[in-house]
Automatic annotation (TrEMBL):
Name of the protein in question: FAD-binding PCMH-type domain-containing protein
Location of the FAD-binding PCMH-type domain: 50-224
Family in the record: Belongs to the oxygen-dependent FAD-linked oxidoreductase family.
UniProt lineage: Eukaryota, Viridiplantae, Streptophyta, Embryophyta, Tracheophyta
Pfam families on file: BBE, FAD_binding_4
Molecular function in Gene Ontology: FAD binding; oxidoreductase activity
Pathway this chain belongs to: Alkaloid biosynthesis; nicotine biosynthesis
Organism: Capsicum annuum (Capsicum pepper)
Function comment: Involved in the biosynthesis of pyridine alkaloid natural products, leading mainly to the production of anabasine, anatabine, nicotine and nornicotine, effective deterrents against herbivores with antiparasitic and pesticide properties (neurotoxins); nornicotine serves as the precursor in the synthesis of the carcinogen compound N'-nitrosonornicotine (NNN). Catalyzes a late oxidation step subsequent to the pyridine ring condensation reaction in the biosynthesis of alkaloids.
Alphabetical UniProt keywords: Alkaloid metabolism, Disulfide bond, FAD, Flavoprotein, Glycoprotein, Oxidoreductase, Signal
Matches recorded under InterPro entries: BBE, FAD-bd_PCMH, FAD-bd_PCMH-like_sf, FAD-bd_PCMH_sub1, FAD-bd_PCMH_sub2, Oxid_FAD_bind_N, Oxy_OxRdtase_FAD_BS
Spans through the membrane: none
Single GO BP term: nicotine biosynthetic process
Cofactor: FAD
Length: 512
């Protein structure tokens, strides 16, 4: 509307009063607007001609400029979203039905690693790949527990928890944050000391774009051995995948915390000996052990001999090489690949998540496979990530992320497809994954049916983005992500951002 358009012009005027053409304010009239917008879009579902576009993108270069964006937005009533790595599953950092300005932190990527006190300051526009790389430049025996895909941004990732292959040993990224610099809704820059422990608690897992704009995180680095061991064993249904997954549920959450074995299940189209197309599933047992092969083999023999792991399946490497191995780069690749912010393969996708407290019976698993075989045109995947170890020791209220003791593992369901912007196809695919989710109901957590905020899923409930959101409405989705921590998050939000300046379709509401 005209009112909204005026609003965004006032916002730009406020940012750049002398009307100088600033090089870091982009509107759709700028020839580079699309490339700046698309640069970090990870889900092609939100890169179509029909996707609502922001009215302005700002890429500030200094903390002062970021502060100015917040102050000007506040003054002119402009709705702002913060974008870090742009990996939000539902595109919330750059898409909304309401007119938006995006503040993209692409120019805030300094990383300062301090080997002596085993810490690092990481600016919030950095990716986890950049963080891993900068740590490895300085030390071969320090690491950080964060996600598998190097292009993920620390801005959103740490705000929602953040986990990867070190989860069972060291917990989440958010468990290892010791300080932060944040711009609050009044435009003030705060650190841990000045923001106080309530707000510092909330930003470590309570979700991005809710309590303020994080400029930088200070993280505690963790010890990793000089050599770790990795392996990936692929098992098809004919090679007893179902029985092996069934057994994995009992052993993987109880392994020593140095051992992490996740499972990725994919459909595989192959031909049999007669040249006929046949379909099977392949379960990849994808693992890292924080130690040597000689230590790993007896553990596997004792706990999971059925998997049949042999010495020749295992590779010893440095921790940073294991990061590249898990990210899918070929052996021998230079760690420089971790600095690239470009995801090699971007597609349309929809994902959902669940937590599992009781092993799923074999028959239950077979029902998933049946759904996998329904439709050849789609690429479905489920990823099972074991919990236990350190995750059992951290209290469920220590940070907002509540999914701790009692969880055997997390499931992520993903569906990828390639058709471009065809609503019919989108609807068909999305309805398939919703059916899978509904099929899983008896096997997963209940009251609430828990979910992981970094696997954002708007199906589980949304705020009223155009108006007031009640506590009860937000609680529908909030309790799934945060369980009993939801109320404390609402309390903090009401205190630090009563006017609900930082908001999105799934941000904690203020009660005022
Ligand atoms: P993006 O910029 O989209 O931000 C996500 C949310 O945080 C938005 O609401 C945004 O406004 C807000 N935000 C961003 N920066 C902020 C800041 N500085 N201050 C305040 N708010 C901010 N997760 C995981 O735990 N383990 C994994 O291995 C993976 N792997 C993975 C692979 C791929 C290909 C994708 C697409 C995603 C994952 N994820 C993941 C999920 C990932 O953790 C999640 O999408 C993060 O929120 C992404 O953070 P970005 O900064 O990249 O996203």
């Amino acid at each position: 509307s005209a009112a909204l358009a005026d609003n965004h012009e006032d916002f730009i005027q406020c940012l750049s009063p002398s009307n100088q053409t600033s090089s870091n304010i982009y509107t759709p009239n700028n020839s580079s607007f699309s490339s700046v917008l698309q640069k970090s879009i990870q889900n092609l579902r939100f890169n179509t001609t029909k996707t609502p576009k922001p009215l302005v993108i700002v890429t500030p270069v200094s903390e002062f400029e970021v502060q100015l964006v917040i102050l000007c937005a506040k003054k002119t009533g402009m709705h702002v979203r913060v974008r870090g790595g742009g990996h939000d599953y539902e595109g919330l950092s750059y898409v909304s039905e309401v007119p938006l300005a995006v503040v993209d932190l692409i120019n805030h990527r300094k990383i300062n690693v301090n080997v002596n006190d085993k810490s690092a300051w990481v600016e919030a526009g950095s990716t986890i790949g950049e963080l891993y790389y900068r740590i490895s430049e300085k030390s071969k025996t320090l690491g950080f527990p964060a996600g598998v895909c190097p292009t993920v941004g620390v801005g959103g990732h740490f705000s929602g928890g953040g986990y990867g292959t070190l989860l069972r040993k060291y917990g989440l990224s958010a468990d290892n944050i010791v300080d932060a610099r944040l711009i609050d809704a009044n435009g003030r820059i705060l650190d841990r000391n000045s923001m106080g422990e309530d707000l510092f608690w909330a930003i470590r897992g309570g979700g991005g774009n809710t309590f303020g704009l994080v400029l930088a995180w200070k993280v505690k680095l963790v010890d990793v051995p000089e050599k770790v061991t990795v392996f990936t064993l692929n098992k098809t249904l004919e090679q007893n995948a179902t029985k092996l997954i069934h057994k994995w549920q009992y052993v993987a959450p109880r392994f020593p915390e140095d051992l992490f074995i996740r499972i990725l299940v994919n459909r595989l189209n192959s031909s049999d000996q007669g040249g006929n197309n046949k379909q099977t599933l392949v379960a990849s047992f994808n693992s890292i052990f924080l130690g040597r092969i000689d230590q790993l083999l007896p553990i596997m023999q004792e706990n999971f001999a059925e998997l049949g792991l042999r010495r020749e399946d295992c590779i010893e490497m440095s921790w940073i090489e294991s990061i590249m191995y898990f990210a899918g780069f070929p052996g021998g690749a230079s760690p420089n690949v971790l600095l690239s912010r470009v995801q090699l393969l971007t597609r349309n996708f929809k994902a959902k998540s669940d937590y599992v407290y009781q092993p799923i019976p074999e028959g239950g698993l077979e029902g998933i496979w049946k759904l996998f075989f329904e439709d050849e045109s789609q690429a479905a995947q489920v990823i099972l990530s074991p919990y236990g170890g350190r995750m059992d020791d951290i209290s469920s209220s220590s940070i907002p992320f509540p999914h701790r003791v009692g969880n055997l593992y997390k499931i992520q369901y993903l569906l990828y497809w390639d058709e471009q912007a065809e609503e019919v196809a989108d609807r068909r695919h999305i309805s398939w994954i919703r059916r899978l989710y509904s099929y899983m109901t008896p096997f997963v957590s209940k009251f609430p049916r828990a979910a992981y905020i970094n696997y954002r899923d708007l199906d589980i409930g949304v705020n009223n983005i155009k108006g007031h959101t009640s506590y009860a409405q937000a609680k529908v989705w909030g309790i799934k992500y945060f369980k009993n921590n939801f109320d404390r998050l609402v309390h903090v939000k009401t205190k630090v951002d009563p006017s609900n300046f930082f908001r999105n379709e799934q941000s904690i509401p203020s009660l005022t």
